[in-house]
Amino acid sequence: MNCIIAQSGGPTSVINASVYGLVKENFNLEVFDNVYGGLNGIQGILEKKIINLSSMNKDELEAFKNTPSSGLGSCRYKLKDFSENEYEYIKLIKILKELDIKAFFYVGGNDSMDTTAKLSKYAKKKNLDIKFIGIPKTIDNDLVLTDHTPGFGSAAKFIATATLETYLDSTVYMDNGIFIIEAMGRDTGWLAASAALAQINGKPCADFIYLPESEFSITDFLNDVRKTFKEKNHVYIVASEGLRDCTGKFITQSAYSAHDKFGHAQLGGVGEYLKNLIMDAGITKRVKALELGVMQRCAMHCASKTDLDEAIMVGAAAIRAAAEGKSGYMVSIKRETNSPYKSSTVLVDANEIANKIKHFPKEWINKKGNHITVEAINYLRPLIADNVLLDTEDLLPKYKVFSR
Amino acid sequence: MNCIIAQSGGPTSVINASVYGLVKENFNLEVFDNVYGGLNGIQGILEKKIINLSSMNKDELEAFKNTPSSGLGSCRYKLKDFSENEYEYIKLIKILKELDIKAFFYVGGNDSMDTTAKLSKYAKKKNLDIKFIGIPKTIDNDLVLTDHTPGFGSAAKFIATATLETYLDSTVYMDNGIFIIEAMGRDTGWLAASAALAQINGKPCADFIYLPESEFSITDFLNDVRKTFKEKNHVYIVASEGLRDCTGKFITQSAYSAHDKFGHAQLGGVGEYLKNLIMDAGITKRVKALELGVMQRCAMHCASKTDLDEAIMVGAAAIRAAAEGKSGYMVSIKRETNSPYKSSTVLVDANEIANKIKHFPKEWINKKGNHITVEAINYLRPLIADNVLLDTEDLLPKYKVFSR
């Protein structure tokens, strides 16, 4: 009897560590004869793109643990409800049966939990002996019913480190300008907030942190920036890509219309937009904007050891859940204690996770809506703990890549 | 009798390690009673912004060694020739004499070597007993008469690591698009070239690397990209920000006129420009461009140990040069052997460095002008060797910051 694991949605630095944790725990507990890997998620499995992960040797498995980005490939494929399109369900189940697969593990975000819940429901309805378990993963940290998501801690650590280092870079001259760093997060501010972890002598490097959870006001923003620039001849700003105005529209969308009047097309993201606001307001022309981009989800060289360990932990817990006959659940992370930090896993109904978003709490944003509170920092800090020592090959990190 | 060290121009990750090397070697050899630090280069020294670096304790000094970005502050101040404006020379010498300063060390690029050469010439003409020594520093690796410059190796390592990791990120889907990474280097291609160090199974991740030393042809570029995209459904492109067309103009400058026809202003750099070229040519709409930006010069968390050690080495050699009564020289790096890699220092005339640029050798670019040769990779590889273990504070790298 065998099982299969696949990955879906956007990559993270530690997504393969969950595969590692699952393969390793299966090796220890001898639950399944083989762990198969579905390439490119459900989409690839439906095309029978399947490999045998149990045939990896120890070295390959260890290297795979530390390899960033969905090593099994990913997809953006959303299963329809089986009442709408049962064909895909029938096709998938046939493929799983051919390989004697009794458990299906899906590593992903809330779309993948939707898939997990639907497949589990279908299997139950059809009395099929196949378990479906979700394993959380997303740098966005926006899944409900889990303290946080694997992948977030490493992204947070990269953002905090980049903030610390670019802060130093942006303050070397006597006439320093304004520096803006743009973090990912179209719907939630978790990633941008983690920049607050970068501190010098106990004070955050960032003068201002703007999150999607707080309505963005151009007037307040320009007042903030003008005042601080007058005081310090320098301003360090962190902005989430998902900033919205009072109507709930992305501010970069409003920008299109605003700038069209002058015949300009607004390219780039929030950072460029804020840069233009500051320059147009005549505060200074010395403004730099840096978009951290996909590095936030693949900078394994700057990963959090805690995040890596928890990614392994949720993978291992998934095997045990299947062994216990559970189906339709996601392995969730519970924070046991904060100091010293300790976490464990619990199972939550995948259906309760699907299509929901966990926002950055309003009470963790300061009154002015331009920074975060100490409570938020206390929540974030342990998640970036400790460094991962990577093996090297040709003097760069050694990563294991499957040909797909 | 005392000495002073100051920093000038753009920061690097290891620029403070040269200050550390100098302070440490002075401590060992007891050449000067105090090592002063001039804040914000010549500009700050002229305003008497000077601190005493010899009063740092061991912990502070060790933390400062590993702190990225000009810790003493920087400036973009170019001294005029003394025949044009002797006033500044007189003012500076007066300040140095007041502090009994017998040696002045300037850490910088070719502008700083120009300053070093001018001051040394002035001191000789006026029979002043003050030595002027240059210490090389630039991520651009564009100084002549040195095998390479401190700061370059760490930038190269960050670029190569980012290339490896974003390559993995850009290949997870079945329908992968095109990824473009933009490296710094307005005049030279050294930084962009170092992306070639990122390899998987012995093959560079980058399909194409375009450098300023090779004329950029839009037609050839689009042919390259179209062909590879058809073959692999994915293209990974590295571009130097300084790409030029056949007339020697920056391609992003040409872009302004090209796009004005349609009423669009071209924002962003080379990456965005190439992205638009690809989309306009109808190759695919799935194109992402990432500008690595200032992270290239401050990502100490990804520094090269070899680079750090050499930055220390040139600082230490500068003290010895002053002790030997030399003036008007820059400490240069000589590659003794490549495998195993070994380097030493030699003194070269600062005047020979000033205002010159070392280009990436044409013979290290392939015939098609879209990649680099094995010889180039052999030159680059040892410079990124080994990792720097950083002390941490609040779970992030511990950096020492002077209030300026």
From TrEMBL, chains A, B:
GO biological process, alphabetically ordered: fructose 6-phosphate metabolic process
Keyword terms of this UniProt record: Cytoplasm, Glycolysis, Kinase, Magnesium, Metal-binding, Transferase
* Residue ranges annotated for the Phosphofructokinase domain, each copy included: 3-319
Active site residues per record = D140
- Kind of enzyme, top EC level? transferase
Q: Which reaction does it catalyse?
A: beta-D-fructose 6-phosphate + diphosphate = beta-D-fructose 1,6-bisphosphate + phosphate + H(+)
Q: What are its GO cellular component terms?
A: cytoplasm
User: Which superkingdom?
Assistant: Bacteria
Q: Which SUPFAM superfamilies match?
A: Phosphofructokinase
What residues bind substrate, as annotated?
T138, I139, D140, M184, G185, R186, E241
Pathway the protein acts in: Carbohydrate degradation; glycolysis; D-glyceraldehyde 3-phosphate and glycerone phosphate from D-glucose: step 3/4
Q: Which residues bind diphosphate?
A: G10
The protein's matches in Pfam families, at most eight in alphabetical order, are given as: PFK
Q: Where does Mg(2+) bind?
A: N110
Subunit record text: Homodimer.
- What is the name of the protein in this document? Pyrophosphate--fructose 6-phosphate 1-phosphotransferase
Q: Which organism is it from?
A: Clostridium cavendishii DSM 21758
